[in-house]
């Protein structure tokens, strides 16, 4: 699996990635299907822009999120309490409608003997979020990745998000938030630990 770094990220954002003709044609077909004329001036470059935007939304496919957890620190001065990163904003797209999912995540773990740089928890989240997702799987994948690679005593992930496929179309119900959680290890087995982590997360 190739690993996408910041350079490739920038290349996609700056429009340097070539867009194959069949991809452009697919987007022209979608514009026609939506009721507009892909040949009108304002829409001429839209197929390329849309294709590059989708490459950027889906950068996670070129990334192994576990690679962010490779550098681990053992000198933690005996710290063995919960480590929590909360209110991490993220964007994803639902696999049913390819519509935006916008929300925030709280990711916690109870270290066994090692910790990771705190930004890496957000990197793992974005690595899985930048794909076509459902919120349940995103939550489970983030938790499993930390559990498998850091081997902590426990992992807790709570995600709260709003789905554009519910607000902008379909049932058209704005203002609703979906909450999902995944607890592993101590946070699953021990009620007191679970309550403590949920309280630190603000739930
Ligand atoms: N469980 C879950 N459902 C999701 C997620 N994102 C979108 N959905 C739902 O996926 C469902 C797809 O339902 P379908 O009946 O196949 O599609 P649809 O006819 O477009 O459904 P409506 O959205 O009700 O119009 C919808 O109820 C969406 O609200 C998610 O992350 N998790
Ligand atoms: Zn959807």
From TrEMBL:
Span of domain GTP cyclohydrolase I: 24-201
Catalyzed chemical reaction(s): GTP + H2O = 7,8-dihydroneopterin 3'-triphosphate + formate + H(+)
Keyword Nucleotide-binding: yes
One GO term (biological process): tetrahydrofolate biosynthetic process
Lineage, uppermost ranks: Bacteria, Pseudomonadati, Pseudomonadota, Alphaproteobacteria, Sphingomonadales
HAMAP family, A to Z: FolE
Subunit structure and binding partners: Toroid-shaped homodecamer, composed of two pentamers of five dimers.
Pathway: Cofactor biosynthesis; 7,8-dihydroneopterin triphosphate biosynthesis; 7,8-dihydroneopterin triphosphate from GTP: step 1/1
GO cellular component, one term: cytoplasm
Residues reported in the UniProt entry to bind Zn(2+): 94, 97, 165
MF terms in GO: GTP binding; GTP cyclohydrolase I activity; zinc ion binding
Family of the protein in this entry: Belongs to the GTP cyclohydrolase I family.
SUPFAM superfamilies attached to this UniProt entry: Tetrahydrobiopterin biosynthesis enzymes-like
E.C. numbers: 3.5.4.16
Keyword field contains Metal-binding: yes
InterPro entries according to UniProt: GTP-CH-I_C/QueF, GTP-CH-I_N, GTP_CycHdrlase_I, GTP_CycHdrlase_I_CS, GTP_CycHdrlase_I_dom
Keywords of the record: GTP-binding, Hydrolase, Metal-binding, Nucleotide-binding, One-carbon metabolism, Zinc
Protein name: GTP cyclohydrolase 1
Gene: folE
Protein's organism: Novosphingobium hassiacum
Broad class of enzyme this protein falls into: hydrolase
């Amino acid at each position: 699996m190739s690993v996408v770094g910041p350079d490739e990220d920038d290349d996609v954002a700056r429009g340097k990635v070539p867009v194959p003709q069949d991809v452009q044609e697919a987007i022209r077909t979608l514009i026609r299907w939506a009721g507009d004329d892909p040949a009108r001036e304002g829409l001429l470059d839209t197929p390329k822009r849309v294709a590059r935007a989708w490459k950027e939304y889906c950068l996670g496919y070129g990334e192994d999120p576990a690679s962010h957890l490779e550098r681990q620190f053992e000198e933690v001065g005996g710290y063995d309490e919960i480590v929590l990163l909360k209110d991490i904003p993220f964007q994803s797209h639902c696999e049913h409608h390819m519509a935006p999912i916008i929300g925030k995540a709280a990711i916690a773990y109870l270290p066994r003997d090692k910790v990771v740089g705190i930004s890496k928890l957000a990197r793992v989240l974005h690595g899985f979020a930048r794909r076509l997702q459902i919120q349940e799987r995103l939550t489970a994948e983030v938790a499993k990745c930390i559990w498998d690679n850091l081997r902590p005593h426990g992992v807790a992930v709570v995600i709260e998000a709003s789905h554009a496929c519910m607000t902008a179309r379909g049932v058209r119900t704005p203002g609703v938030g979906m909450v999902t959680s995944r607890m592993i290890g101590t946070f699953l087995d021990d009620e007191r630990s679970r309550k403590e982590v949920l309280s630190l997360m603000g739930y």
